[in-house]
Amino acid sequence: MTKKTKAKSTNKKLTQAQREEVVRLSVEDGLTYTKIAEKMGCSIPNVSYLMKKHRNKAQDNKKKEEARTKAKMKANPFEYPTDPITFRVGKLLEIEGDIQYAREEKVIHTLGSLHKLHLSLHDELRTFVEASKETHGSTAQQLKIEIVDAIQSLPPLLKKQVMDELLTDTSNIVRLATK
Question: Which among 33, 34, 54, 96 could disulfide-bond with 47, CB atoms 3.0 to 4.6 Å apart, if both were Cys?
């Protein structure tokens, strides 16, 4: 019988510590994939795969950190705007960043809901902006005109009841100063 010499296996599964050692040997020691594979007893494609995985993880961590930094620069998390318009503008910017991140990471399942949220907040923002433009009675004269117009636009029966109430009971009438 002849003895078969068993070659060093290149298909063995590496432990977590060995995978970390592969990364360290490449990054810190600068060894080639071939030398790392020989030293660790694994294949060159295995080393290449581990290094690619390491680079992707590093890029993901960098993107997340940039997103956090960007968010911190935009607003202080302990300061919430009381103005509804400012609040909605801030939320729109946050959602815009989330949409961009989802596109870059190809996280398609969340894009639809993010777009719907973005649109609904945008519609709310437009409503608040339009409402803020409406100024009622900025002067006493303008207020008087608006009240008279409101009374004049009432149906005749209701208009008569309001006028009767105003003319008979003057205790609930506030006189506006005119210039």
Answer: 33
